[in-house]
Amino acid sequence: MATKAILRGTALAVTSLSLGAGAALADDFTLRIGAGHPNGPTVYVTDVAEFFVPEVVRRVAEETEHTISFVEGYGGSIAGVAETLESVQNGILDIGAYCMCFEPAKLFLHNFPYYAPFGPQDSEAQMQAVRAVYDQVPWLTEQFTAEYDQVLLGLHGWDNYHLGTTDPWETVADLQGVKIGGAGPNLPWLEFAGAQPVQSTLPDGYLSLQTGVYNGWLMFPSAYLGFRFYEPAPYYTLIGFGAMGVNALTMNENSLNRLPEDVQAIILEVGAAYEAQAGASLNAAQERGLTGLAEAGATISEISPEVQSGWAESLATFPGQQAAEADGRGMPGTEVMQTYLDVVAGTDYVWPFEYSLGN
User: Fold this and answer.
1) Cβ atoms 115, 330 nearer than 8 A
2) What are phi and psi of 353, to 5 degrees?
3) Structural domains in the chain plus CATH codes
4) Taking 80 as the threshold, does the pLDDT of residue 3 lie above it?
């Protein structure tokens, strides 16, 4: 009894506990949350900071006997863009937000929207399609827990991808040999143009464009504006590679399980709400981005439907190749890619070229 009294007194003396550090024996909890990208220029991180975090804080305070606070580390201050998955797994972060594009091995198949470019241009339609695939193929959700000790709280994405360059171009042939940066899974999109793909990340983009490491960026307008890429690369061409639902918000499984059940439920519910508002948030960011780029003096142009369909057709074998690659890695690649193509086919979206895994 004496030992229990000492332990209880110690717990009550602690104002807050980081769940990544040990058992939670108090009514006040502190979670570490972070992302490799900064709050502001990247929509999925802004929605973490301005929606997810305050909503969890508010609901826990109003609906439970507990309180919760967050130590927020965005812009790589705790974990970089390619470190967040592992940081959540190891408990360095309790919750992490990241683009799965920076986990090309561990989350290869989760990047399936990249493998069928020129898909839904509208982010709400894209997020709905991606959610449908996750619901129909539970492996995608289960892998986070089974292999990486974390729970998927919600999905997010990028708004419609286009292309910014340091120099003007008129035909696709003008891009032959031009060095263009991208996140990784989208670099094969450049094969049609004969451009030279360069693996890169958003935080490196401005300096790399400025110094000629590459002369273009595959990028959506929200970030192209937010990271001021229009300064070294003022030519922005609307290609319509599509919106991409490839970002995840995940939580360390132990950190979640240590919380009281009512707090766990709130975090899961707010995670689902974070995903539900992602499409509209991204669409609004796309519109703001294009308006802002025009106001900043960027030169905005658009390729013709014929060039777009030709570009899409040049990637006819890409979805099937990636599905087979995933199958070979022990992942349900064919099932996921076919489900995605079927889901999009069931909407009113018309592909500029209709992909099939048999191409």
Assistant:
1) no
2) -145, 130
3) 7-345 (3.40.190.170)
4) no
